[in-house]
Amino acid sequence: MKLKCDFVTNSSSCSFVMIGVKMKNKEVKEMIKKLLNKPDMNEDDDDLYKSDLPYGLTRIWEPDMIGKYIANGSSDGAGLSDSSTSIEKLEEYIKLVSEKLNVDKSKIKLYTGERNC
Questions:
Q1: Angle at CA 63, nearest 5°, toward 106 and 38?
Q2: What is the Rg, in whole angstroms, of the alpha carbon atoms belonging to the chain?
Q3: Residue 65 gets which letter from DSSP?
Q4: Domain encompassing residue 67
Q5: Structural domain includes residue 81
Q6: Considering only CA atoms, which of 60, 57, 55 is closest in space to residue 14?
Q7: What is the pLDDT confidence band of residue 28, given thresholds at 50, 70 and 90?
Q8: The pTM of the whole model exceeds 0.90
Q9: Phi/psi at 47 (nearest 5 deg)?
């Protein structure tokens, strides 16, 4: 029997590591409107549902969160590759998320998981 001791993926999911903030769906939509500078955006506007956001930020759907990827796995089943990120770079990401989302740094967390890709 073979054991895999890291993220497990299949063809429809990608592993990720992100510094970000979980929000309610309504809060995410309001934040996207602010980031895109489109306060009057309607629910049927496709831009409201994009994953790639300004400033290198990303939206993840389940659970709803916005943040900055530290690592993002591939959909070919390879999972996350070995990598490292300096503490200084992590501090930059925390500052970016805090400033662009206008949230206190205490609300920002390190998230790991899988997303649809």
A1: 80
A2: 15
A3: E
A4: 13-116
A5: yes
A6: 60
A7: very high
A8: no
A9: -60, -25
